[in-house]
Amino acid sequence: MELDPATYDGSLYRTLTGTVIPRPIGWISTTSPDGVDNLAPYSFFNVVSVEPPIVMFAPGPRPEGLTDTAANVEKTEEFVVNVVTEEFAEAMNETSATLARGESEFDHAGLGRTASTKVEPPRVEGIAVAYECELEEMRRVGSAHVLTGEIVYAHLDDAILDVEGKVDVGKVDAVGRLAGSHYDAVESRFRMERPD
Ligand SMILES: Cc1cc2nc3c(=O)[nH]c(=O)nc-3n(C[C@H](O)[C@H](O)[C@H](O)COP(=O)(O)O)c2cc1C
User: Fold this and answer.
1) What is the reported pTM?
2) Which of 37, 136, 158, 162 could disulfide-link 148, Cβ–Cβ 3.0 to 4.6 Å?
3) Strand ranges across the sheet with 23-24
4) pLDDT tens-digit readout, 110-157
5) Distance 23 CA to ligand 1 centre (A)
6) What atom of ligand 1 comes closest to residue 59's alpha carbon?
7) Domain segments of the chain as ranges
8) Which spans in the chain are helix H?
């Protein structure tokens, strides 16, 4: 199939989310100005810069305008990225439910909160990797918004570190999103050395 986005009348969403795979999932916690903790998964998520460390995620459009996550970050300029591992996959899915604004996804999914060090939103209790972020920029890109945030503090469970204290990629059982309700787990890792 050849496809010109300008004239294609099928689902570009399906095409893009079914082929740009697997996507890491940033499980974003925020706190609203009136103190409600929000938690939602975003697979339009990645690292942008290392110095300084900056991550991005992209909430798509909603009939009411912004997602709760984007609305909270716009007002408070803070968020936490929780990295979704297999043991949290089902809870992550639970938190993608559309809830009333005053209801917290932490409570809806039966998740505990652990206080952050430098920002207000808590991280998910028991999560192996969490990055506390301050908003760098929020801007409109196409029909979505791209939010970039500088990591101001990181929590890494000792269980995912090697003897030298570096992250052991063999111990981070991150879950990736494919299209729709399809996910993948890291089941076979392999090595390939880069040429000089
Ligand atoms: C694995 C997964 C990844 C998702 N990724 C995105 C995304 O990148 N952008 C987006 O707008 N919605 C995404 N969603 C949908 C939101 O998580 C969902 O609409 C959620 O209710 C938004 O919550 P909020 O309004 O509290 O921010 C995703 C859902 C799931 C289950």
Assistant:
1) 0.97
2) 136
3) 23-24, 175-177, 183-185
4) 999 999 999 999 999 999 999 999 999 999 999 999 999 999 999 999
5) 13
6) 11
7) 25-183
8) 12-19, 68-76, 89-94, 105-108
Q: Is 90 exposed, middle or buried (0-12, 13-18, 19+ CB in 10 A)?
A: exposed
User: Ligand 1: distance of its center to the CA of 1 in Å?
Assistant: 29
For residue 146, the CA-to-ligand 1 centroid distance in Å is 13
Q: Where does 25-183 sit in CATH, by number?
A: 2.30.110.10
Copy the structure tokens of residue 147: 């939010």
Tell me which residue of 69, 70, 81 sits closest to 37, measured CA to CA: 69
Residue bearing tokens 């990736």 = 176
**Separation between Cα atoms, residue 94 and residue 96, nearest integer Å:** 5
